[in-house]
Structure formats: structure tokens, C-alpha cells
Amino acid sequence: MIVRTLEECRNSERRVASETWESVRMLLKDDKMGFSFHITTIYEGTETHIHYKNHLESVYCMSGEGEIEVVGGETYPIKPGTLYILDKHDEHYLRAYSGEGKEMVMACVFNPPITGNEVHDENGVYPLVD
């Protein structure tokens, strides 16, 4: 059994951040669950370019508002209660709108799991779908 709190993970090496986001890695590859689970905040008024080469990613927006733009494709609004799933090669921009309370807080699941601070097992297998 694994029992962790967001606060204890936030105050450890499991918290990583950039100028546009913060991610608290609640589960990583070393936890041997076959996926990683993160609570990620996209700071208000920012845009983040994201392209994971070889991951399935499921993201559920818990708070805030913004949009996701798939490169070469559609743009979709994101608000609380929105789920989006990216399949392996979906290069995209994630934008959080400006304004009080607009930063987006999301629960994210990666398969294969992320291995560390910002290290992705890009050539890994998909243990949940094999």
C-alpha cells in the first residue's frame, strides 16, 4: 500500500516546476504501479509547449480554465470537469487563461510512467495496455 499526501510530495524532490507550470509527482516509475500520477498546475496567463514522444496521457481538470491546442489540429476549451486523453505523439500547447483563479490544476496519469523529475521513459512499454 502507498499512502502519500500532496503536501509531503510538494515538499520533496517529487515537486518540479518551470516558468509556466508546477508538477507534483505522487507516483513515479520506481513505485512500480505501471503508470505515474501527478497533480499539475499550469500558471495563469501562460502557454506551455508539450510533446511526449511515446506516452499515453490522461488529464482531468479540477480547477481553472484554459485550452489545449493540438499542433496541426483542433483547439479545445478546458474547464473544471474536462478530461482529455493524448495518444503517444500528440504535440500540443496548453494555455491557462489570465485572471483571478484561472490557473489550471489537473490530475495527470502517464503510461509508461515518468521516471523522475522531468525524465520520461520514451522507449518504454505500455504496461497498462500490453
Describe the protein:
- The chain has 130 residues and is mainly β.
- It has one helix and ten strands; from the N terminus they run αββββββββββ.
- The protein has one helix spanning 6-10; strands at residues 15-17, 21-27, 36-42, 47-50, 55-63, 66-70, 75-78, 83-88, 92-96, 104-111.
- A hairpin with a 4-residue loop joins strand 6 and strand 7.
- The longest helix is centred in the N-terminal third of the chain and has 5 residues, at 6-10.
- It is globular, with a radius of gyration of 14 Å.
- The model is unreliable at 119-130 (pLDDT under 50).
- Its EC number is 4.2.1.108.
- Pfam families: Ectoine_synth (PF06339).
- Belongs to the ectoine synthase family.
Keywords:
mainly beta; single chain; four-stranded antiparallel β-sheet; 130 residues; six-stranded antiparallel β-sheet; disordered C terminus
Task: Break the fold down into its secondary structure elements and pairings.
Elements: H1 6-10, E1 15-17, E2 21-27, E3 36-42, E4 47-50, E5 55-63, E6 66-70, E7 75-78, E8 83-88, E9 92-96, E10 104-111
Antiparallel strand pairs: 1-2, 2-3, 3-10, 4-9, 5-8, 5-10, 6-7, 6-9
The structural class is mainly beta
> How many strands, which pairing sense, and closed or not: the largest β-sheet?
6 strands, antiparallel
Residue share in helix: under 10%
Overall, the morphology is globular
Question: Radius of gyration in whole Å, from Cα?
Answer: 14 Å
Number of strands: 10
Instruction: Write down the overall mean pLDDT.
Output: 83
Are there runs of 5+ residues with pLDDT below 50, and where? Answer: 119-130
What fraction strand? 35-45%
Protein name: L-ectoine synthase
Function: Catalyzes the circularization of gamma-N-acetyl-alpha,gamma-diaminobutyric acid (ADABA) to ectoine (1,4,5,6-tetrahydro-2-methyl-4-pyrimidine carboxylic acid), which is an excellent osmoprotectant.
Keywords: Lyase
Pathway: Amine and polyamine biosynthesis; ectoine biosynthesis; L-ectoine from L-aspartate 4-semialdehyde: step 3/3
